[in-house]
Each structure stands twice: as C-alpha cells, then as structure tokens.
C-alpha cells in the first residue's frame, strides 16, 4: 500500500489533565474530541494493511535540543518545558506525560516518531521511513490542527506527498483556529491537499 496514516502528538501532555496543554491554559477537552474518529481510522487502516505512524513532541532530558525561542515562549504561556507537573517534566522524553494516551496506543511494529519541533519531518527520520516503504499519500490526524498538524502537512506537501487532512480526527483548543486551519488547506483548488471527515474517508476505503 502506498498510503500511510499519521497520528500526531496524541500524548498525555496535550490530551490529559496536568500535562503541558493544561498548564498552558488550553482546553484539553477539545483536544480529546478527535479520539473516537482516530480510533475508527486506526481500525480501518490496520485492517487494510496501511502503514500507521505516531508522533510525540518532546525534548531530551537535558533540554539540549530545545531552542531558546521555544523555551521562552513556553515559559510565557505558563508551561515551561522541563518544568515539573503532575505527569512528570513537561514535554520531556521518557516522562509519563510525554507518552501517547491509552486510547490510541500503537500496535507492535507501528513506528513512533519522537520530534523536537512542530513538523514531524523536522530533525526526524520520518521521510526516510516513508520513502523506504514507497509511501506517496498521507492521511493526517492529531493535535493541534493549527500547529503540529499544519506544520507536518505543509512540510509533506513540499516534499511531494499527497495529503488528506481528516477534519474530525484533528483538533485545536480554539475552534476558530481549527476552522481556519482546515480552510487554508482547501484554497486554490486544494493547495495543501484534501479535507474529508472520517466517515467520508472510511466510505472511500470501503469502495476501493
């Protein structure tokens, strides 16, 4: 199969109380809304033998890969990266909060991409994994729509991948930003790809 499903940053730090997003004042409830749609897509993708990948945003325990501007921005938001929280140090690899939520655990053999930035292609081996598997089409889900999801999608388009953004399988803490991010994908005849909801995508798969 030449299609892969990417689940972006469905981590406790973003989708559980006490994590990074919660400390930064974001609405964790909204960030959890895509879980059922992602679960349905995972079931469908796995049944069809699609490559499934997961990403996690976070930094080395010594924070040596944390840019100064990102450090200052997180501090200003009230959620200093590396600071102590109920789920461990915020956005630090190996901490409880850094890991993926229980509802969306990877199955054996599904790659997990640890990334220090917003795009899943920046400073990772994601492109190598996709090229080695002959992947040409990406289905993109996760959080947040306007930051890591959009950053990954735009990087993918520049690298030549055909992208589908699943509208109810991604989320933002701000509904207006979610809607704007979706709208930007479809301008100019789909400059960044397609926008479908999970029901339409699953129906499309059934017709193949």
3D architecture notes:
- The chain has 208 residues and is an alpha/beta fold.
- It has one domain: Rossmann fold.
- The protein has helices at residues 12-15, 20-23, 28-31, 35-47, 68-76, 126-132, 145-158, 175-190, 198-206; strands at 3-8, 51-57, 84-85, 88-89, 112-115, 137-143, 162-171, 194-196.
- It has a six-stranded parallel β-sheet with strand order 5-2-1-6-7-8, sandwiched between helices. Strands 3-4 form a two-stranded antiparallel ribbon.
- Helix 4 packs parallel to helix 9.
- The longest helix has 16 residues, at 175-190.
Give a brief rundown of this model:
By secondary structure, the protein is α/β, with parallel strands linked by helices. The protein has helices spanning 12-15, 20-23, 28-31, 35-47, 68-76, 126-132, 145-158, 175-190, 198-206; strands at residues 3-8, 51-57, 84-85, 88-89, 112-115, 137-143, 162-171, 194-196. Helix 4 packs parallel to helix 9.
Q: In the CATH hierarchy, what is the architecture at level 2?
A: 3-Layer(aba) Sandwich
**Percentage beta strand:** 15-25%
Low-confidence stretches: none
The percent of residues in helical segments reads 25-40%
Mean pLDDT: 97
Give the class-level CATH name.
Alpha Beta
CATH superfamily: Isochorismatase-like
Number of strands: 8
Structural class by secondary-structure content: alpha/beta
List the helices and strands and how they pair.
Blueprint: E1 3-8, H1 12-15, H2 20-23, H3 28-31, H4 35-47, E2 51-57, H5 68-76, E3 84-85, E4 88-89, E5 112-115, H6 126-132, E6 137-143, H7 145-158, E7 162-171, H8 175-190, E8 194-196, H9 198-206
Parallel strand pairs: 1-2, 1-6, 2-5, 6-7, 7-8
Antiparallel strand pairs: 3-4
């Amino acid at each position: 199969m030449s299609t892969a499903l990417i689940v972006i940053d469905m981590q406790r730090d973003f989708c559980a109380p006490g994590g990074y997003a919660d400390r930064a004042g974001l609405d964790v409830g909204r960030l959890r809304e895509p879980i059922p749609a992602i679960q349905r897509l995972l079931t469908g993708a796995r049944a069809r033998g699609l490559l499934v990948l997961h990403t996690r945003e976070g930094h080395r325990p010594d924070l040596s890969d944390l840019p100064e501007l990102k450090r200052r921005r997180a501090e200003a938001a009230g959620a200093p990266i590396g600071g102590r929280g109920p789920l461990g140090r915020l956005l630090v690899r190996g901490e409880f909060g850094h890991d993926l939520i229980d509802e969306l655990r990877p199955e054996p053999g599904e790659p997990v991409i640890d990334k220090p930035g917003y795009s899943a292609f920046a400073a990772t081996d994601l492109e190598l994994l996709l090229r080695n598997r002959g992947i040409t089409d990406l289905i993109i889900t996760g959080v947040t729509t306007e930051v890591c999801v959009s950053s990954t999608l735009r990087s993918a388009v520049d690298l030549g991948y055909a992208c589908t953004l699943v509208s109810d399988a991604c989320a933002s803490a701000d509904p207006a930003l979610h809607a704007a991010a979706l709208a930007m994908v479809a301008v100019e005849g789909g400059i960044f790809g397609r926008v479908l909801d999970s029901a339409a995508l699953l129906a499309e798969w059934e017709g193949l």
